[in-house]
Design goal:
By secondary structure, this protein is mostly beta strands. The chain has a single domain, classed as YVTN repeat-like/Quinoprotein amine dehydrogenase (Methylamine Dehydrogenase, Chain H). Helix content is about 5%, strand content about 45%. The protein has one helix at about 1-25; strands spanning about 30-35, 40-45, 50-55, 60, 65-70, 75-80, 85-90, 95-105, 120-125, 130-135, 145-150, 155-165, 175, 180-185, 195-200, 205-210, 225-230, 235, 240-245, 255-265, 270, 290-295, 300-305, 315, 325, 335-340, 345-350, 355-360, 365-370, 375, 380-385. The strands form 7 sheets. Strands 1, 2, 3, 4 and 31 form a 5-stranded antiparallel β-sheet that branches. The termini are far apart.
Length: about 400
């Protein structure tokens, strides 16, 4: 009888232990979200159900960042002085500790002081998490995209810089999902026509400009050219989406359709499209797009408005080389949206200037999660670290 009682006890203990392990696995966060404000950073753990819980020690005070980027170990951001990129190590509970800082403007070529230099950022990390790219705006009359190697301790080592567009409506540099090429686009009303900068990402992570081309859809009117909004996005393979509109180069007047066009990059970095003007969906936000992001699955595209009379955001179906197709109407039309983030558990994080909205988003359903939005006054940027 004692043996039977002991067996029952052991089995009960094993079952309880297994249940505890399952509960812990279920409750483990699937992602971590960082949101910047002028005086601190809010840190949230994300459950599989989309619930956000402040991480221990959040908000993290005396941190003023913008243009964040993240890999598995470090978070990088542009300092409020407009000069430095700061590196923070990420603790197991999400807390940040500054471990390095680099003056990025010193690598801009400016020799007469920094007074005329634009602030550093945005920053971007390649898909393997080993290189940080920094967009350094007008400085000595030339904007640059700089390449920095991430050392084991999180410090950044400058490698090279490449020129980028000087036009008013330049896009942030984006990298193909296959990590082979990077792109930046620019256009202006004074000099119509999209200017394309295409870079090959070499084995050491440096970007170097190449002579590849971008082939746009045939314009509605012969002789017209295209301008672009200052955003672009890439999926996890070799596709890129860009908002374009047709312009008469003689008058600088809008002359034709405005919409989202999907490109495919070949092995030489050339961008081509099979989309036609009639197939391009037009965002319903009322003007220029200020934010754009494709989900990790490559199936959804979020676009947001953040300037002038444009407000709200929309989600589209992204179909690789095939045309983008409409999904939702305008969401939260009273808010200006700044940035988007995604985790790998189908959560979309849409940051406005006053709140963080959390959606469960799949190609077949999209709904705002319980507890969303979270009020975050004076928010400026968001970044998501996937933990799966």
């Amino acid at each position: 009888m004692k043996s039977l009682a002991l067996l029952v006890t052991l089995l009960s203990t094993a079952a309880a232990y297994a249940q505890t392990e399952a509960t812990q696995a279920t409750s483990s966060p699937v992602a971590r979200v960082y949101v910047t404000r002028p005086t601190h950073v809010d840190v949230f753990n994300v459950s599989s159900s989309g619930k956000l819980t402040p991480a221990p020690g959040s908000p993290l005070s005396n941190i003023d960042l913008s243009h964040m980027s993240v890999n598995s170990k470090f978070l990088f951001g542009a300092s409020d002085d407009g000069v430095h990129i700061i590196t923070y190590s990420i603790a197991s509970n999400g807390a940040l500790k500054q471990v390095a800082s680099i003056d990025a403007i010193q690598y801009s070529g400016e020799t007469d002081g920094y007074e005329d230099c634009s602030p550093v950022g945005p920053t971007l990390i390649d898909h393997t998490g080993v290189t940080v790219y920094n967009y350094q705006g007008q400085c000595d009359d030339t904007p640059w995209t700089q390449s920095f190697k991430i050392d084991e301790n999180g410090s950044l080592q400058f490698m090279n810089r490449v020129p980028t567009t000087e036009d008013l409506s330049e896009s942030e540099t984006v990298i193909l999902g296959n990590n082979e090429y990077a792109y930046s686009f620019g256009s202006s009303y004074d000099n119509p026509g999209t200017e394309s900068f295409i870079y090959k990402r070499d084995s050491d992570g440096t970007l170097n400009e190449v002579g590849s081309t971008v082939t746009f859809p045939k314009p509605k009117n012969a002789g017209d050219v295209y301008n672009n909004d200052p955003v672009a996005a890439t999926d996890s393979t070799n596709h890129l989406v860009l908002p374009i509109y047709e312009v008469n180069p003689n008058t600088s007047d809008d002359a034709g359709p405005y919409g989202l066009v999907s490109f495919t990059a070949d092995s030489e970095g050339n961008l081509k499209t099979t989309n036609t003007l009639s197939q391009m969906p037009e965002p319903e936000l009322g003007g220029e797009l200020a934010a754009m992001s494709i989900s990790p699955s490559g199936k959804l595209l979020a676009v947001g408005a953040g300037a002038l009379n444009t407000k709200g955001f929309q989600v589209f179906h992204f179909n690789g080389a095939d045309p983008v197709t409409k999904y939702t109407g305008v969401l939260h039309s009273s808010e200006y949206f700044l940035e988007f983030g995604w985790d790998k558990a189908n959560h979309l994080f849409a940051l406005s200037s006053s709140a963080l909205h959390i959606y469960d988003a799949t190609p077949t359903s999209i709904k705002e999660e319980s507890g969303s939005p979270i009020s975050i006054p004076e928010a400026s940027s968001v970044i998501v670290q996937s933990l799966q």
